[in-house]
Amino acid sequence: MLGKHAVNAYLLLGRRPVLVDAGTPGSGQSIHDRIAGHGVDPSDLALIVITHGHIDHFGSAAELRRLTGAPVAGHVADLEPFRTGKPRMPYLPTGPMGRVMNRNRRLHASADPFEPEILISGDTDLADFGLAARIVPTPGHTAGSVSVLTDEGDLVAGDLVANSFMGLIPGGPANPPFHDDPLGNLASLRAMLALNPTKLHVGHGVPLDPERVRRWAERERRRLSGRAARGRLRSRTTL
């Protein structure tokens, strides 16, 4: 969608494979075929982890569950989008890109609803699913956002941070188009950086170097603090 790295899903390999995120509606077969293209039998998937309740991350979760038989994991705070197939409205843009995208009808489309078999409410070890990793709640982008941190230090970060312009051009750390709670998301990002990940694998764009993200996060802290002090920072908690 919009380019090779504009919307990412990740295949994590251990004793059994785990998929993180499910793309936009109608992309289930493509993701299924890409899994097979890596030499992995899609029916061997142990789990499908959804990082949060936005349509470009859970859009094909129901389809992939039908295609692979794998259970789906999602955070309890984002159950409403999963159960209805619709993200919470209104979207809260983080800048000009979000304001432009908010006018795109496809962003307001519906997906097949689903009920996660695995409900996440705190840190969740994935050892029982054959993967040396854990799911960590990282609220802010949405209330139910999560990330996956492997024992080797790879952080699959969902939309904690993006790589400039949705991955359409090379760049550095940037906000995704929307955040429900910008300050909450920044706190989650800084908490994950404190765990010293080796690389951040983001939902939009190519991977990011943690040190570069740390420098960006400090600038973002100052920017958001200034906006909050002027009463110009919107969040879903204040709507």
Shape: globular
Structural class: alpha/beta
Number of helices: 7
SSE topology string: EEHEHHEHHEEEEEEEHEH
Beta-sheet strand percentage? Answer: 15-25%
Low-confidence stretches: none
Describe the protein's architecture and organization.
The protein is α/β, with parallel strands linked by helices and 239 residues long. It contains seven helices and twelve strands. The radius of gyration is 17 Å and the shape is globular. The two termini are 31 Å apart.
In short:
The chain is of the alpha/beta class. It has seven helices and twelve strands. The radius of gyration is 17 Å and the shape is globular.
Task: Record the SSE blueprint.
Elements: E1 10-12, E2 18-20, H1 28-37, E3 47-49, H2 55-58, H3 61-68, E4 72-75, H4 79-84, H5 96-101, E5 118-120, E6 124-125, E7 133-137, E8 146-150, E9 154-158, E10 162-163, E11 173-174, H6 182-193, E12 199-202, H7 210-229
Parallel strand pairs: 2-3, 3-4, 4-5, 9-12
Antiparallel strand pairs: 1-2, 6-7, 7-8, 8-9, 10-11
Highlighted features:
7 helices, 239 residues, single chain, globular, 5-stranded mixed beta sheet, alpha/beta, 28% helix
